[in-house]
Protein: TetR family transcriptional regulator
Amino acid sequence: MSSTDGSVAATADAQAGAETGREAIVRAARRAFTLRPYAEVTMRGIAAAAGVSPSLIVKRFGSKEALFNTVVDFRSAADELFAAPPSALGRHLVLTMVELRERFRGDPLLRVVFSLGIEDERTLLRARFREQVTDRLAAALTGPDAQLRAELIAGQLLGLGATLSLHRPDGAGSHATAERLADLYAPGLQRLIDGA
Amino acid sequence: MSSTDGSVAATADAQAGAETGREAIVRAARRAFTLRPYAEVTMRGIAAAAGVSPSLIVKRFGSKEALFNTVVDFRSAADELFAAPPSALGRHLVLTMVELRERFRGDPLLRVVFSLGIEDERTLLRARFREQVTDRLAAALTGPDAQLRAELIAGQLLGLGATLSLHRPDGAGSHATAERLADLYAPGLQRLIDGA
Structure:
């Protein structure tokens, strides 16, 4: 291997390492903010879980609040989930949810439910979810009871992710195609979207 | 107050105290088994959270495994949820879920979702849920894909509880009547039950 190849490889390795470090911090922070009250989460604890130094997290993400705002954000998932006209949204929601879960190797919304298991006086995670998912959905719906219907649609989305995770890896949902899941699960969603 | 009245009152107090103690142990144990891996849960920790002595828990419930089997059981909720003929089950599920949540001041099923937030090699809670809820439901369904439809029905039930808890206390779901929730949410469930 020439020295040029070597330094290219070293740079690629360093980039991969930096990426892995960032990914490890994000995962550890998500887990900590989901499972513990905000006040109990420490940068030191996240650093230990991610296998990096606390100062690296501060350098990369800033304060604890800045880190929270970076890692707990439902907007990009909502952007993809809601990217269909209302008449086709039910099926799009199911197909996109399955796709996002595969791409991120985890559920894009479900952590908000884990947070119900703890008593967090700040309930930041829930406020974030309501604002970025439920309220956004309600604003896109027409007809009566838009807010209530948006809450129930959010419920069905959370329920889909919950049941797929719960029955993994040998459940029927793990073996079904996304199309088959949509055939069965989309009509209930579409009915709530239509409000009819 | 006569001495007779006094001793009646004292007995009633002692019974109320015993009931409160049992209730406190059950709550603390449910919380511990939901939020922590089984191996990390200790009788000492549950006792401290419940404000009783570890020996009282052993006396009342037996071993840690016996306590787990007592407090984490979905059968009585399933008995009530599934007590309707298939043609009326969708609406019955929604009304019963709302009623159980009110009666127990908490969701009868949702703790299984909280448990997804932890990595528990034994996943006892999930196995219990699959056996007592999903498989029981699948056995009651006719038509194709009964197991898959049962998983999706379980998902919608979990999602209903999740969204009601998540949007409390000022969400639209908190102010809607059980009948209105059933009007909106039952058709999707009924469609999965019918398998049509």
Q: What stands out?
A: The domain at 3-68 of chain A is CATH 1.10.357.10 (Tetracycline Repressor; domain 2). Chain A touches chain B through 48 residues (CB under 8 Å).
